[in-house]
Amino acid sequence: MRIRGVRAVALVLLLAASVAAPAQQASSASADERLRAIYTAEWEWRLKEMAREPGDLGRDSTADHLPRVDAASQKARLAYWNNALAELDKIPFEQLSAEEKINAEVFRTVIKDEIVDVRFKTYEAPFNADTFFWTEFTPREGFATADEYQRYLGRLKDVPRYFDEHITNMRQDSRAASPCRRLPSLGVIAPSNRISKQTRRIPFTRRSR
Question: N or C: which terminal CB in the chain sees fewer CB atoms within 10 Å?
Fold first, then answer.
């Protein structure tokens, strides 16, 4: 979803800043190095988990398969992020350089958001008003190499497994009577057909008068 994409961008900027940073003073080097080791390892792990591959200039590209989205994989990710957060808490914040203090806060925010998502099982409702798990299989700019096309074919072969895992998650969400699914029925999010039938005032048109 788009929120996860924003988090990924935040981590990319964080890693880029750490590479471009000047040498730190000896008093903060140890704490800074420990922090960089944690968020660098998390990023490399994240690329593999989310079926991404490192690319040029820090960009990444989709792999030849789709990510696992089943409950067991989500549980494993939760364990990893909890451990990363625990390791982050062990670093004396006051010993970090000014720049790495900012990076630590960014990293903490991103990881906490990921943990909350898994704890509340948002993966059991994998679509909303503008984001769907069955879209974004291809980049808007298309593919540039034969290798990218080969990876795309690999992802297409993986679609049945990927869809089955999402369907299983959604069925579990339905049995649990998740608030995410109940919102439309409660009138909080009106379906488009209800909006078209009930709405008589259309802003910025003659019908709004």
Answer: C
In DSSP notation, the chain reads: -HHHHHHHHHHHHHHHHHHHPPPPPHHHHHHHHHHHHHHHHHHHHHHHHTTEEE-GGG-EEE-SSPPP-SHHHHHHHHHHHHHHHHHHHTS-GGGS-HHHHHHHHHHHHHHHHHHHHHHTTGGGS---SS--TTS-SS-TT---SHHHHHHHHHHHHHHHHHHHHHHHHHHHHHHTT-HHHHHHHTTSS--HHHHHHH----TTSGGG-
Q: What is the mean pLDDT of the chain?
A: 79
Q: Please state, for a pLDDT cut of 90, what percent of the chain lies above it.
A: 52
CA distances to 53, 81, 115 from 109, rounded to whole Å, are: 24, 12, 10
Instruction: Report the predicted TM-score, pTM, of the whole model to 2 decimal places.
Output: 0.71
- Number of domains within the chain: 1
Length of the chain: 209
Q: How far is CA 105 from the centre of its chain?
A: 18
pLDDT digits (tens, 9 = 90+) for 98-112: 999 999 999 999 999
**Which tokens in the block code for residue 186?**
């409660």
Task: Give the range of the structural domain holding residue 53, as residue numbers without chain letter.
Answer: 2-208
